[in-house]
Structure of GNAT family N-acetyltransferase:
Amino acid sequence: MMAKEELVLRALEPEDIDLLYKWENDMKIWEVSNTLTPFSKHQLVKYIEQSQLDVFQTKQLRLIIELEVSKQVVGMIDLFDFDAFHQRGGVGIIIHQDYRQKGYAFEALQLFTQYCFNNLALNQLYANISINNNASIALFEKIGFERIGIKRKWRKTKDGFVDECMYQMLK
């Protein structure tokens, strides 16, 4: 039996452009990312360049979830709506379909929440999850996020409107 590789969270690199282009333009995940139009490589190159700026300037942080030894990228995790004054931010995570159900999302979200609380001095994190996204709901609840409300008919999907759950984790 092979030992499990360490998971690391790292900054975006210029070499990530093709992966970012593929994932950001995957219409199957637009519903969870609130994306309505495709991104050009030019836009994403600019985004990667800006991602090197301080989170206090950009109000967001995207990190690559990578296996340490093989350098295999398994997903991305985001801090958005970063508010230093109120010490809070939103969290989003995506794991490539080939790496789901292996514990990587749990490990990455655990590392990321610790980083946000300990290094960025946040007091709370939140996540907005469609009520029918059972895998994400289970993940965030397992980490310790609590459901604090439901926004009725909040997200428009191809099948109509669905409710969105609001989750929160306090330090």
About this structure: The first helix runs from residue 17 to 24.
